[in-house]
Design brief:
Quinone Oxidoreductase, Chain A, domain 1; seven-stranded mixed beta sheet; alpha/beta; Rossmann fold; single chain; globular; 16 strands
Length: 351
């Protein structure tokens, strides 16, 4: 089969590989649509997870079941399916302890385009099909299903990690596609005020639609100073970090109230240490919590989140700004994600 791969750090291209084999619990999927992610950019051009050679990229997609293992009960050849970017090993001790995303090692629930070929191939393999696949509802398009693979569950997990409550004032740092879904999730969770950090008009308009009430830009000065001005010096109850770098935690801590919580779902592609200001962290005793997490993945989460779309609680179409038709355009979509033109939120390739 053909696939679009990371050849080595800084280099990508088309390669030929053997079609993956199907284990008794697994499934082989033929993609219907795929979407590149900023994580692919970090992986290839920043070498964020180290060297990878001839690894097929991509972890956002949906498809049609081509083959199922002999022990798969709930899916059959021809089913249209969704699959999360994170496909845990559900029998692992980590999964049993409540952290399936770290099954058999830190971040090891993230298999596609990490240590296993991803979805940018003519076929891709899914482990533990009954636990990691979900049927694609007729009301959801393949393009929308790609958003449900990663953008929605990751943005919503940031909201879960920050423990957003009714009436909270929330800061969302970075309103790319994950940040936009954090805005939407915060709104669904009952946040009273949502301050979004972003500067591109296309993302600002989308954020307004998802429930953001205020906007600031890092280009206009320190984020924390702008937040404190907006809140009369009080700061915010909760923060979701969905963009930035290792230095972003400093203004976040400064903008957070004592006993506030930060949920980080941003992939930190570079740097060695994050910066936490000592005094504003309450000299270590301010009850300002930082929780960084990879979203859980799995069938149940996909089924539940998809119902938000089916029942018109969540519209994913504003995320999709660029559409391609044909497998050969995977490369174009990936480089679009790398270059990030001003009118881009997410590209999708329909196959």
């Amino acid at each position: 089969m053909k696939g679009y791969a990371m050849l080595r750090i800084g280099e990508t291209g088309w390669i030929e590989k053997e079609r993956p084999e199907c284990g008794p619990l697994d499934a082989i999927i033929r993609p219907l649509a795929v979407s590149p992610c900023t994580s692919d950019v970090h992986t290839v051009w920043e070498g964020a997870i180290g060297e990878r050679e001839n690894m097929i990229l991509g972890h956002e997609g949906c498809g049609i079941v081509e083959e199922v293992g002999s022990l798969v009960k709930d899916f059959k050849v021809g089913d249209r399916i969704m699959v999360a970017a994170i496909t845990p090993d559900w029998g692992s001790l980590e999964a049993q302890s409540g952290y399936p995303m770290h099954s058999n090692g830190m971040l090891a629930g993230w298999k596609f385009s990490n240590f296993k070929d991803g979805v940018f191939g003519e076929y891709f393999h899914v482990n533990e099909a009954d636990s990691n696949l979900a049927l694609l509802p007729d009301e959801i398009s393949p393009e929308e299903a790609c958003m449900l693979a990663d953008m929605v569950p990751t943005g919503f997990h940031g909201v879960e990690l920050a423990d957003i409550q009714f009436g909270d004032t929330v800061l969302v740092i970075g309103i790319g596609p994950v940040g936009l879904m954090a805005v939407a999730g915060a709104n669904l969770r009952g946040a009273a005020r949502i301050i979004a950090v972003g500067s591109r008009p296309v993302t600002i308009e989308a954020a307004k639609g998802y429930g953001a009430t205020d906007f600031i830009s890092y280009k206009d000065g320190p984020i924390d100073e702008q937040v404190l001005d907006l809140t009369n010096g009080k700061g915010v109850d909760r923060i979701v970090i969905a963009g930035g770098d290792v230095s972003t935690f400093e203004p976040a801590i400064k903008a957070l109230k004592p006993a506030g919580k930060i949920g980080n779902v941003n992939y930190l592609g570079g740097g060695v240490y994050i910066q936490i200001p000592r005094v504003e962290w309450g000299v270590g005793m301010g009850h300002k919590q930082i929780v960084g997490g990879l979203m859980p993945g799995g069938r149940l989460r996909m089924e539940k989140l998809s119902q938000l779309v089916v029942n018109k609680k969540l519209d994913l179409n504003p995320l999709i700004t660029h559409r391609f038709n044909g497998f050969e355009h995977v490369e174009d979509a990936l480089f679009l994600m790398k270059d990030k033109p001003k009118d881009l939120i997410k590209p999708v390739v329909t196959i």
